[in-house]
Amino acid sequence: MASIAVFIALIGPVCLALATLTFGASRNSTEGQVGRALLGGGVVYMMLTWPIAGIMVMLWLRRARSNAEALNPDFRHRFARGWVIAGWIVPIANLFVPPLMVADVLRASSAVGTGSRVVVAWWTTWLTAHLTLVIGFVAVNNVEYPRGASTLGHFLLLTLALFAVAAVTLRSITMTVARSQDGR
Questions:
Q1: pLDDT tens across 115-148, in order?
Q2: Alpha-carbon Rg of the chain, whole angstroms?
Q3: Total structural domains in the chain?
Q4: CA atoms of 56 and 176, how far apart (whole Å)
Q5: What average pLDDT score do residues 84-103 get?
Q6: Does the record carry Transmembrane as a key word (predicted)?
């Protein structure tokens, strides 16, 4: 369910990327109005769906952590159970606690020594996508039109690619954990 919510939330960055196809069109043209609607709608959609997707991921992690503890009680997790939720919310900690918790759940759930490369790939692309999105919107305000629109367009396309990779790697993680836990 968590990875499905993440893929649904990915529609927001898709709208932002589609808006780049209209950059350079006159504001009053139909194409320009569609672009503005996609850009604004994508931002609003992200504001509405990302918190829901985040809650779904936290709930998945809490459930997966509980299952991992029951299946492998000898495994020593790096953080107490309360950090499953707090790790996403507490500033600074939210930059490093979530991937460490996911890596712990992955290792505790797997009969085979599962590496954390996929977790590093997921978290790195997730953080980089957010940073890229912010840089793109800051850049558009600091560069004159039309170069600013072109710069934003490049950042939005890169952001979409990064979010897509993050969503796919998270899906891989959730499926690996589910298969490992169901197999025990």
A1: 689 999 999 999 999 999 998 888 777 766 666 6
A2: 19
A3: 1
A4: 17
A5: 96
A6: yes
The identity of residue 35, as a single letter, is: G
Could you tell me the residue range of the domain that residue 145 belongs to? 2-182
Q: Which two tokens stand for residue 130?
A: 């957010």
Tokens 């169901």 sit at which residue?
Answer: 182
The predicted-structure confidence for 173-182, as pLDDT tens digits, reads as follows 999 999 999 9
Mean local confidence (pLDDT), 56-75 = 95
Does the pTM surpass 0.85? The reply is yes
Taking the C-alpha atoms of residue 173 and residue 183, their distance in angstroms, rounded to an integer, is 15
Amino acid at 14: V
Q: What is the 3-state secondary structure (H, E, C) of the chain?
A: CHHHHHHHHCHHHHHHHHHHHHCCCCCCCHHHHHHHHHHHHHHHHHHHHHHHHHHHHHHHHHHHHHHHHHHCCCCCCCCCCCHHHHHHHCCCHHHCHHHHHHHHHHHHHCCCCCCCHHHHHHHHHHHHHHHHHHHHHHHHHHCCCCHHHHHHHHHHHHHHHHHHHHHHHHHHHHHHHHHHHHCC
16: amino acid identity, one letter? L
Greatest CA span in the chain, whole angstroms?
65
